[in-house]
Amino acid sequence: MCELSFSAFSKVACRGALAGGLGMAGILLAASPALAIGTEAGTTVSNTVSVAYNVGGVAQTAANDTAEFVVDRKIDVTVATAGTNQVIPGQTAEVLAYTITNTGNGEQGYDIDVAVAGGGTAIGLTLGAGASPASGEYVVYVDANDNGVFDPGTDTQYAPSSGSTTLAFNLGHATNTTNYAASTTVFIVANIPASAADGAIDTFTVSATTLDVGTTTVTTESATNDLATEETVFADGAGTADAATDGVHSNEGVFEVVTATLVVSKTMQVISESPSNCVTDAVVASQYALPGACIEYTITVTNNGTANAENVALTDVLPTEVTFSGFHSSTSTFDTGPSEAAGTVSATANSIASGGGSVQLVIRALIN
Ligand SMILES: [Ca+2]
Ligand SMILES: [Ca+2]
Ligand SMILES: [Ca+2]
């Protein structure tokens, strides 16, 4: 049952038998969904009718006839995905999960392909070669313990020999799960580079192509229709990268980068050449920047990104040519501060909302 030629995946291909050998078959199979699969492909269904009768009160030999047919092989597979995983630059071990389910009526092999494409601004993730992917790399795992969750150290990493992301293994179906689970999950696990741009996207398409059991031969549909033999019929739907009834199903998952993008604006104006109270004076038109004049700095921090900015700490060391007077009116929208010590202004905002949220403070000072 496990003599598949995919050396890189012999463990996966044989996982059902392996688990059975370890006495874990019950756990393995219990994790698989219960599906209405129907009568197993290749089953011979036989039915005999019997007609008894008498002649002259004497029972005669009954008349009989039997109708027989073989259940054909329905090829159906689905690839389900959780959709979009929003990630932050520098995040590690971010996961996209794809569950491949055999919804046909017989055990099948599957060739699982992973393709990545950037959309708009790409993250540019590449397939990692080792067990520990570097920043900007992804690796592929198969759900060895069939719990639908990525378990580092437990699930099996696919080790590509030459940059390929082709996996192959068998899946059973609900009425014959003696050796194989009816579904399994493939995980794309990525380390998002710290330099990833806000809004960057990488789309991962996972495709499952039906194979004849235990081989690398792509399953084909039968050309004939004979009640006495088992034919193969495609019944799969159209996925994101495949057509209906082609023996293939595919689906997309997306890593989408979200982060804060802070823009700081600092402007200056002269309030008054001869101030009476620099902190509260109203602005006077057309004033020169003379020694003794009151000036004003306005600082605005705006978040144009797609994620909130947290623990925003502002520091502004005033030039030695000016002397701090105070913070003008109640224009600060920081959470802590602003405060000033020895010519250095400090303030902290707990959070600046994404999509244009901002905080501001206004400093008044005298020109020395
Ligand atoms: Ca797992
Ligand atoms: Ca048939
Ligand atoms: Ca299809």
Automatic annotation (TrEMBL):
Keywords: Signal. InterPro entries: DUF11_rpt (IPR047589), OmcB-like_DUF11 (IPR001434). NCBIfam families: B_ant_repeat. Residues 287-366 form the DUF11 domain. This is DUF11 domain-containing protein. The keyword Signal applies. The keyword DNA repair does not apply. Residues 1-36 form the signal peptide. It comes from the Bacteria. The lineage of its organism: Bacteria, Pseudomonadati, Pseudomonadota, Alphaproteobacteria, Futianiales.
